[in-house]
Amino acid sequence: MRNSLANSIIQKAKVDPNLFLIVGDAGLGLFDTFQVDFKEQYLNAGINEACSVGMAAGLALSGKKVIYYNIAPFSLMRPYEQVRNDICYQELPVIVVGIGSGLTYAPAGVTHYAVEDIAIALTIPNLQIFSPCDANETVACFEYAYSSNKPSYIRIPKNGDPIYNKSVDDITKLQEIKMGESKIAFVTHSNLITEVMNAADHFDASVYTMPFINSKFNYDDVLGKYQYVFVIEEAFEYGSLGSYIREYSKINVNKIGIKNHFIHKIGNQQFLRKLLKIDSCGIIERVKDSM
């Protein structure tokens, strides 16, 4: 997914000299070609997050369309004030990219988790939030965000994820990934979809993704026909997509995610998913308990 995003940025830079990329000592190797071919449109600002976002805002005010690329906790959470005041208050065309959504960087510990970033982002007016499930949705989210000229936050995991959304149409809508025969629907985002798809087979449930987290989509039109709707996330249950759908629809949403507490155990992503019961077996167990 990172490679797909990087390729999209490079292709866009070829046709838009106003694109400007700021990285925070991340993406090393990923943007080597960009540094050479577009050296006047690139800056590695180092471990300097608040200042980087401030620079992004200044460049946007001078006519640039800026992308700030860093690990998720350091692209949004550390410079929260600057994202809020410098970018979103002024509605500037800046895309904040957060790499390592959810528990992607699990071995690095809690400082590198991004499980509360959606909840934080949802508190900021004017900020579009995207959480694609695969490379196709990643490209679609970037294209939408770039053309919108609005403040945007795109959170993505790393590479190696299969393609689930074969044909991305309108990312402001729920994406139908699998149509089941039961009265159960699973809604998810990011690469937890791998676990969700496996769990869905157990119930013959339908599966949808929502790459545009705070889209003003009418969920009732699609989800109203289901007896049970589960929003399943590698994110805090409180304040993420499940909470957003509850707020803006009449759907009786069951939330399956991470409880709002610090995770003190260390392991890889799969270890933590199992521990937190958001792997496929844990999802099956929690769905059964809720029905």
Please write out the topology.
Elements: H1 2-15, E1 19-23, H2 32-37, E2 42-44, H3 49-61, E3 65-71, H4 72-77, H5 80-88, E4 94-99, H6 117-121, E5 128-130, H7 135-148, E6 152-156, E7 175-178, E8 184-188, H8 193-203, E9 206-209, H9 219-223, E10 228-236, H10 241-248, E11 253-258, H11 269-275, H12 280-290
Parallel strand pairs: 1-2, 1-3, 3-4, 4-6, 5-6, 8-9, 8-10, 10-11
Antiparallel strand pairs: 7-9
Helix pairs in contact: 1-7, 3-5, 8-12
Compact overview of the structure:
Residues 1-163 form the Transketolase-like pyrimidine-binding domain. By secondary structure, this protein is of the alpha/beta class. It is built from twelve helices and eleven strands.
